[in-house]
Amino acid sequence: MNQMLRSHTYDHHDNSSNGTHRTSQVEMILESIVATVGEADRLAIAQVLNQMTVKPAILASLYRAFLDHPDAVSIGAPPLVGRLVMALREAGIAIGEPTCVGCGRTNHKLTSSQEGGVCGNCRHRQLATTCVSCGKIKIVHGRDPNGGALCSLCSPRKND
Ligand SMILES: [Zn+2]
Ligand SMILES: [Zn+2]
Q1: Exposed site from 5, 67, 85, 96, fewest CB < 10 Å?
Q2: Are 22 and 60 in contact (CB under 8 A)?
Q3: Would you put residue 13 in left (φ > 0), alpha (ψ -120 to 50) or beta?
Q4: pTM given for the model
């Protein structure tokens, strides 16, 4: 039996596994932005991205956002992506300001929804539904025993 254990012969160069991890996350975000904005601005985007993601927590949050929505920069949500978009704009990259798809307002923190980035007010409106008790379209405040939506007026108060 001549066992040649060659488990470590292939040469993959990772001097620091931590650094490699960071690089791959930044690259994934960079590729997502380039796919949305265009190849021409790749260098400028990389610069902005590297400056913004110095803190590992910010990089991790951005990475998650782009995993969920590769086109996050065109949505401008969540707020951290909104910040990134503004930083990219300041660097002269032609990219739309984060705008609520519901009311068109800018300068608001956006949440991503099926329709796109929405501000807090519009998100509330999206979540509104017909109250099973009074029939009005309102923000869901509670549920009846069957799981039907109840508005704030119709949902039972906790102290009653
Ligand atoms: Zn809105
Ligand atoms: Zn009601």
Answers
A1: 5
A2: no
A3: beta
A4: 0.74
For the CA of 152, the nearest ligand: 2
Q: Which domain holds residue 154?
A: 128-160
- One domain, residues 43 and 99: yes
pLDDT > 70? residue 127:
yes
110: left (phi over 0), alpha (psi -120 to 50) or beta: beta
Question: Count H helices, E strands: the chain?
Answer: 6, 6
**Do 113 and 72 fall into the same domain?**
yes
Structure tokens of 4? 């040649």
* Least distant ligand from the CA of 102: 1
Measured in Å, residue 16 CA sits from the centre of ligand 1 at 44
Distance CA 149, CA 139 (A): 9
pLDDT tens for each residue of 32-74 = 999 999 999 999 999 999 999 999 999 999 999 999 999 999 9
- Examine the pLDDT at 4 and tell me if it is beyond 90: no
Among the bound ligands, name the one nearest to the CA of residue 76: 1
The position carrying tokens 């991790």 is 60
* CB 86 within 8 Å of CB 96: no
